[in-house]
Design brief:
The protein is mainly α and about 650 residues long. It has 4 domains: about 25-40 and about 115-240, no CATH class; about 300-410, no CATH class; about 415-555; about 560-655, no CATH class. About 65% of the residues lie in helices and about 0% in strands. The chain contains 27 helices and no strands. The chain has helices spanning about 25-40, 55-60, 80-85, 115-120, 125-145, 155-160, 170-190, 200-215, 225-240, 255-265, 280-290, 295, 300-315, 325-340, 345-365, 370-375, 380-400, 400-405, 415-445, 455-475, 485-505, 510-535, 545-550, 555-585, 600-615, 620-645, 650-655. Helix 20 (about 455-475) runs parallel beside helix 22 (about 510-535) and helix 24 runs parallel beside helix 26. It comes from Hevea brasiliensis (Para rubber tree).
């Protein structure tokens, strides 16, 4: 799958440079270092095959057919590194090889590429630029026989060797010279490996010279006074010892300059025609990249954190389509975790913390509301992002956090705690959206017959949300949290419970809407509890802890209380009627042919209507509460009989007796 590289919205956590050096400047400087180190390193130096007619250049290089120098880069199998990370090969649909990008020579087959030519193609360096650099390196080597590259301040020597005649025009030369001077400024004054005192007279003098060179081109001839003054100041600052007994010049090994330069080199491992793929020749290219460590002051630990960042940032910058890059970054983080446990170096810890915080921040932006980020179409990416986020969080907490170190081992499960936070945050967020949607649905259907109450709609939607969580997200999150589904339903239970509690507090009487809501809530609760029980059956306590997080809605109890209130209201109403009617009724038994008072008929009619109304209530517990109703009605009948009897004369009383 081919993808265009877009600008990442992430600032590099490796550090921002004080000097005005853009990525193009850093890339050019990194390539100069790469060529210089590769050319002078022992064992397997780069072979340079020039297409130009400059015969003086070819005399300084061995034959390209020499088995010691010529290294075919046409890999028969995927590299060991790519296999270890599970990274994909460049897209089979790509018609170009890495050697056919900008700056590559004409007529060269992929099979004839050397590491140097491949790197030039990968970093998009023009062949004329490459030729100019190599020509200068030959001159430098001739003038400093026996000196190792790390004991040379490369920008200073390039300034000395390259003249206006080596460039296309005056503008190109001045642009190059200004960039080179800025590199000296960044490496020696702004980001030195060995800290500089502001009062240091040499550094003050160097700053003045550099400021002058940035205003107007500096004369760089061998016998130039300005060049001699510059060389004296540069070497004085660069030669300061960092405590090690070596002859290394410190001009590109201060943080963050060295990390940013190294980042540019690592970026070259990606195929120029398929930005999401690492080239097959990455093992060999990486071997040469690592030779820059002596100049850049890098080590395996810094390499691991830089490579992690480059893999992650490439995923972000390529529209997040190749999750293999995230998996590779996650795999690299496993090495970073080992490193973090073995070092207390403050500079390393600062870079580590910054990088991991950036990765974690990006991940959490998506995971704290993962329902908005992922669905069945991109669920595979979620697993990769969760894994990376959890790995970053574990290192930050376990290996950097002082608070964690003060606690006894085993008290904090970082992975489980992190996933717990993601679940609760995301579900609370999606619940709020679901509530708003239910409210909108209710308003839209208000003119329809018998519209559902909002909380009844919400109960149905939350039930579907819980089922989707169980089927789609929980299987992924279960890798880090064994009871992910339980946490999810407990969160939904709490969110809905809060809304229901407010609703119940506002119910004054038993209405169809109230009963609908309470019955829907009761069903939802049963469904949520069932999911929690099934999910936590293998837990140490059999799921008791998570069930304790789910206090009952008590919807049935709320319905029962409302029914009891309804019963009491009906009974009280009947009693009031008895009092009022018997006070007004005048009844003469001799004048009444039926032989009974009209009130007796009416009271029985009211009781009959009350029983009919009771059985029409939309509740599930008619039999359970019927005794309460019958007891109340019976009391009313007895009250009626007593009141009626006491209101009659003695003759009636005796006749009744």
């Amino acid at each position: 799958m081919s993808s265009k590289l877009i600008a990442s919205d992430l600032d590099s956590p490796l550090g921002q440079l004080s000097a005005q050096l853009n990525d193009s400047d850093l890339r050019a400087t990194a390539y100069e270092i790469f060529v210089a180190v590769s050319r002078t390193s022992p064992g397997k130096p780069l072979t340079y095959i020039s297409n130009s007619s400059n015969s003086d250049l070819s005399t300084h290089h061995h034959s390209p057919n020499s088995p010691a120098l010529q290294r075919s880069l046409n890999s028969a199998a995927a590299s060991k590194m790519k296999k270890a990370f599970g990274l994909k090969s460049p897209g089979s649909g790509s018609k170009k090889s890495p050697g056919s990008g900008p700056g590559s020579g004409q007529g060269k087959s992929r099979r004839s590429l050397t590491v140097g030519e491949l790197m030039r193609s990968q970093m998009r360096v023009l062949e004329t630029t490459d030729s100019r650099i190599r020509k200068a390196l030959v001159r430098i080597a001739a003038g400093q026989v026996g000196r190792r590259i790390e004991s040379v301040v490369l920008p200073l020597e390039l300034l000395q060797q390259l003249k206006l005649s080596d460039f296309t025009d005056q503008l190109e030369y001045e642009t190059w010279q200004k960039r080179t001077v800025k590199v000296l400024e960044a490496g020696l004054l702004m980001h030195p490996r060995v800290p500089l005192e502001k009062s240091n007279p040499t550094s003050q003098r160097l700053r003045q010279i550099i400021n002058g060179a940035l205003d107007r081109p500096i004369e760089t001839g061998k016998n130039s006074e300005s060049m001699q003054v510059l060389r004296s100041a540069v070497m004085s600052v660069a030669s300061r010892s960092d405590g090690s007994f070596s002859e290394i010049c410190h001009w590109a090994d201060g943080i963050p300059l060295n990390l940013r330069l190294y980042e540019m080199l690592l970026e070259a491992c990606f195929d120029v025609n398929d930005e999401t793929s690492i080239i097959e020749e990455v093992d060999e290219l990486m071997e040469h990249i690592k030779k820059t460590w002596t100049v850049l002051g890098m080590n395996q630990m810094l390499h691991n954190i830089c490579f992690t960042w480059v893999l992650f940032n490439r995923f972000v910058a390529t529209v997040q389509v190749e999750t293999g890059l995230l998996d590779a970054a996650d795999g690299q983080l496993a090495e970073v975790a080992k490193d973090a446990k073995t070092t207390k170096d403050p500079q390393y810890s600062k870079v580590l913390s910054s990088t991991l915080s950036c990765i974690l921040g990006w991940s959490e932006k998506r995971l704290l509301a993962y329902h908005e980020t992922f669905d069945s179409g991109n669920i595979e990416a979620m697993q990769s992002i969760v894994s990376l986020g959890v790995s970053a969080a574990k290192i930050l907490v376990e290996d950097i956090s002082n608070e964690y170190r003060r606690k006894r081992k085993g008290e904090v499960d970082v992975a489980q705690s992190t996933i717990d936070t993601y679940i609760r945050s995301s579900l609370c967020s999606v619940f709020a959206q679901t509530l708003e949607k239910a409210d909108s649905s209710r308003r839209a259907s208000k003119n329809q017959p018998n519209p559902l109450p909002v909380l009844a709609i919400l109960a149905k939607d939350v039930g579907e949300l819980a089922l989707n969580e169980k089927q789609l997200f929980s299987p992924i999150l279960k890798r880090w949290h064994p009871f992910a589904a339980s946490v999810a339903v407990a969160t939904l239970h709490a969110c809905y419970g809060n809304e229901l509690k407010h609703f119940i507090c506002g119910i004054m009487e038993l209405t169809p809407d109230a009963v609908q809501v309470l019955r829907a809530a009761d069903k939802l609760e049963k469904d949520l509890v069932q999911i929690a029980v099934e999910d936590s059956v293998d837990s140490d306590d059999g799921g008791k802890a998570i069930i304790r997080e789910m206090p009952p809605f008590e919807a049935e109890a709320a319905i029962a209380n409302l029914v009891k209130a309804w019963i009491k209201a009906r009974v009280d109403r009947l009693k009031d009627w008895v009092d009022r009617n018997l006070q007004q009724e005048v009844w003469n038994p001799q004048a009444n042919q039926e032989g009974f008072a009209p009130s007796a008929v009416e009271v029985l009619r009211i009781i009959d209507e009350t029983l009919d109304a009771y059985f029409q209530l939309p509740i599930p517990m008619h039999p359970a509460l019927l005794p309460d109703l019958m007891a109340g009605l019976d009391r009313c009948l007895q009250y009626y009989a007593t009141k009626a009897k006491s209101g009659c004369g003695k003759s009636l009383e005796s006749s009744i007796n």
